[in-house]
What we know:
Blueprint lengths: L9 H11 L6 H13 L2 H17 L1 E2 L6 E2 L13 E8 L2 H10 L4 E5 L17 H10 L4 E4 L5 H14 L5 E4 L15 H9 L2 E2 L1
Parallel strand pairs: 3-4, 3-5, 5-6
Antiparallel strand pairs: 1-2, 6-7
Amino acid sequence: MDFNPGLTAQSVSVLIEELHKLPGIGPKSAQRLAYYLLRAPREEAESLAHAILLVKQKVIFCSRCYNITETDPCAVCTNPGRDQKMICVVEEPLDILALERTGEYKGLYHVLHGALSPMDGLGPEELKIGELLARLQTNSVEEVILATNPNLEGEATAMYLHRLIAPLGVRVTHLAHGLPVGGDLEYADAITLTRAIQGRQAM
């Protein structure tokens, strides 16, 4: 980092270093955030700290779909109005929020918590793939929608899952490519996602 710790209070330096560890936060952004919090009212800083601690204390992963939740199983998994014969596989919990905004999808979900990426040390064992296969073997699922991101890692993950799931006799579909290649689901608008769900294709 390009700030001089010798010219900065130690507690501020520690805060900058911790903020810099967050994804997407570079050295300059970390410094700006730290000095913003330094100037902010004490109540605002305490509210932020409390919110972070609350998340760590209360939020867990659903034991069925691995979405984030405060109750286990989560509200989607226990909703009798959801189609129990359909599972949509996504990379991250944020993808579920994006799909739910469309109001189009009424089935269940399964969160992988990443995509296959050997360069980043993410292989099948690091993802919730074994848990997905276990769900398919114990439930009467008729269709699995692969809603991985339309980039290299997402497509590789979808193809890998297709090879594992197809022999189980479960229909495997993929979101239609109304989604921009190289983009992430969480940034797609509701109309694009709705069309992608409606136009999903068999793999």
